[in-house]
Amino acid sequence: MIIVTGIVYFSSVSENTRRFVDRLELPAERIPLRAHEPALKVKAPYVLFVPTYGGGNGRGAVPKQVIRFLNDEENRSLIRGVVAAGNTNFGSAYCIAGDIVARKCQVPYLYNFELLGTAEDVHRVREGLGQFWLQR
Amino acid sequence: MSEKLKLVSRVTAINWNRIQDDKDLEVWDRLTGNFWLPEKVPLSNDIQSWHTLTADEQLMTTRVFTGLTMLDTIQGTVGAVSLIPDAVTPHEEAVYTNIAFMESVHAKSYSSIFSTLISTAEIDDAFRWSEENENLQRKADIVLNYYRGDDPEKRKVASTMLESFLFYSGFYAPMYWSSRAKLTNTADLIRLIIRDEAVHGYYIGYKFQKALEKATPERRQELKDYTFELLFELYENEEQYTEDLYDPLGLTEDVKAFLRYNANKALMNLGYEGLFPKDQTAVNPAILSALSPNADENHDFFSGSGSSYVIGKAVNTEDEDWAF
Hints:
heterodimer; A: alpha/beta; Rossmann fold; 5 helices; 7 strands; globular; B: Ribonucleotide Reductase, subunit A; Ribonucleoside-diphosphate reductase subunit beta (chain B); Ferritin-like_SF (chain B); metal-binding (chain B); RNR_small_fam (chain B); ribonucleoside-diphosphate reductase activity, thioredoxin disulfide as acceptor (chain B)
């Protein structure tokens, strides 16, 4: 699948991240959940939305599907920023997927939010992304 | 106990090579990977710190821990177990047994804290207080009532409320001490409990949402109304319980913001949007930072001038799957 969009996101079957992205009401593409689904190939710059898998020592914090998506060189070349979701209950691992992706891909870590995010989070990210793309 | 024990009606040998819901395996792996025991935490390093607390501060802290012991006992012996007969997959049943066991580990870990810091007589006094405190007993009664009820989804709501909301009037205290560089080893232990409760609340809330997917619109509305009613009932009780514990130290309002923040998270775990607005959930930054050192970092690139940004701090948590 080839797409032109500003948001790429991953969400597990819990659908938490998808619900946040839905509330942004911006075009978005989802990284497939299962290995047998066709891999997502992007053709335009995007901001990645990634949930942090909780707990432990931080290993496995970035969902495997997201790693697989970023291992594709073209996909990786088009990432412009990352937004991470998490839960402060995970202490120093809170939203650490954002740190990991930002560092691996050398892109800005734009924002983080908890679980489904609040109305303020949705507002800030919507406004912020608009500005972010304008300035680029 | 007079009521008849409800058990799973039919058991088939669990096959972990046939997973119906990936979330079961994912959460099982996460929970077993997070396994810990209180004996690993050097609580005795807190003895000196404990003696710097005033009598009122020690009393509050001891009572907080008996209250938490009570909740973990309920969740370990009744709550998580009561969810087993409602499980949709055999792996879900197994996850609940893990949750039940870990709750018993949590309950026992408070006893480790007690035996390290206080005398047997003080421990007995604190347990007596917990048995006599009306608001603590009421909290237990409300939840236990739903565990004994006949509605599997209401049981999940009550369980998620306990995991994601009712503990936090208690969790505030060790985070408060940690933010003042006191009882830091105790706080480390409590952080392990907080981490576990997050996975429990997330999972039970997720199973609730899966059940909702198959429900009629009327049933969905019923469960939503029920959830918010229960939250209000519990919140009102939590406010009073918080006053009992924290009024002598003047911390009550600070704790209440923390309660509302966590009430919103409990609702989110159940798939609903938070109820309390931002200005009512502004947790004291010192408490938030004690909970998660990353929470107060400025990851709001959008609010800045745009001239500088964070590229993510160094993390020594490489997964072998990365290919670049």
